[in-house]
Amino acid sequence: LRTPITVIRGQLDLAQHSNEPVEPESLLPLQDELIRLSRLVDDLHQLSLAEAGKLPLEREMTDLYRLLGRIVDRLSFEAEQKGIRMTLTCSAESPIVLADPNRLMQVFLNLTVNALRYTPQGGQVEVTIREEEAEAGESGRIRVTVSDTGPGIEPRHLPYIFDRFYRTDEARSRHSGGAGLGLAIARGLVAAHGGTIEAESVVGQGTSFTVRLARSLTG
């Protein structure tokens, strides 16, 4: 939060001491920083609600194949521009979960955008949906995996990537404006649905994020 506040304060001080009319173009950097600041505040608020177990969810029967299909369609142009092959496969007979589709959209969009961002030209991003066998007294689970062929994550970083503000590449994250909250929020949203999220990675080969959600009894 300190960075955008400092930029805004500096720009306003400069405008006040210049004793000249402020041109509309000079306000654009302030608007950019205010947008960034608002997003950070919203992210922190959402994360705090999720961690406190007070995040409101509007649950409905949600078809994960359709939801993920919209994400892949949305990102297909960017993938083509980068020369990345993006695929969506589903082996689950009925990938229906009782969930808040907007919250899940946020989770899987974050994971897929990250996969696309760190996959080099000529690489591949795979989104797969599978069904896991149900144990006694359970309805079974749907497993969604987002895999990339990017540089991977070093083993020393892997245990902490879901922690708030943790960034494996400080310089790159700062340049892209990331605050290290995306994966923490994803974990909070998945947990609010009673699910789990985990990551596996091999340096030089890629990373996979797997989300497990309870399958709907009527799915």
Mind explaining what this structure looks like?
- The model is unreliable at 170-177 (pLDDT under 50).
- The chain is an alpha+beta fold and 219 residues long.
- The strands form two sheets. Strands 2-4-5-7-6 form a five-stranded mixed beta sheet.
- Helix 1 (2-18) runs antiparallel to helix 2 (28-51) and helix 2 (28-51) packs parallel to helix 6.
- Strand 4 and strand 5 form a beta hairpin.
- The chain is 43% helix and 21% strand.
Give me the number of helical elements.
Answer: 6
Round the Cα radius of gyration to an integer and report it.
20 Å
β-strand percent reads 15-25%
The count of strands amounts to: 7
**What is the chain-wise order of helices and strands?**
HHEHEEHEEHHEE
Sheet with most strands: 5 strands, mixed
Mean pLDDT reading:
87
